[in-house]
Amino acid sequence: MIAQTASGLLEGSDIGPAQTDAAANSSQARTFQISSAPLVVKSGATLNTAPVFVLPAESAATIHPRMIGMNGELSTIAVPLKAGKTFTIYVGGEGIDQLAEFGISTSSPLIKVVPKTLTSEEFGADYPVISFQVTVDSTAEAGDYSIRLQSPSGELSYLPGVISIRKPDNH
Fold first, then answer.
1. What domains are there in the chain, each with its CATH number?
2. With a threshold of 0.70, does the pTM exceed it?
3. In degrees to the nearest 10, what's the CA dihedral of 145, 76, 1, 142?
4. Residue scoring higher pLDDT (11 or 46)
5. What is the CA radius of gyration of the chain?
6. What DSSP line would sit under 96-142, residue for residue?
7. 128, 90 in Cβ contact below 8 A?
8. CA proximity to 103, closest of 142, 35, 156
9. What separation in angstroms does the CA of 25 have from each of 19, 28, 30, 157?
10. 36 falls in which pLDDT band (50, 70, 90)?
């Protein structure tokens, strides 16, 4: 499970009641992974237990992705990709230039980062921009997918739903 607001930062009260006074009084936190365990969802079943969320006690975030894009352009909307093709994706923001190729992945095993394609780009922006290629398997289902960024120090940042796989054209 991944938690993030549209503004990119979470207040403790945004994700649930604080379990400690320290968490209740903490400042904003960046996107973080709550669990990598499978989430079991059953049709017609209701779960009434309150989830417990723990905010990470780490130093301030250094990766601040702001923009995503393709075709040499940056934006704040999802990039529309098609199954069975390879695309160049651009990501811009503070700290993005500290990423290594092994620190970029997606939320689907059917969308893979192409090895040795990570490149620094010049966009004339006030923050660094990188590009990398992804290949979308021909069996990838239509839907929204996320990009996961991890710095060499282990810091994580997620770009939820920034890849949008479109249904194939039937022409």
1. 1-36+47-60 (no CATH), 64-166 (2.60.40.10)
2. no
3. -20
4. 46
5. 18
6. GGG--GGGEEESSTTEEEPTT--EEE----SS-EEEEEEEE-TTPPS
7. no
8. 156
9. 11, 10, 16, 23
10. low
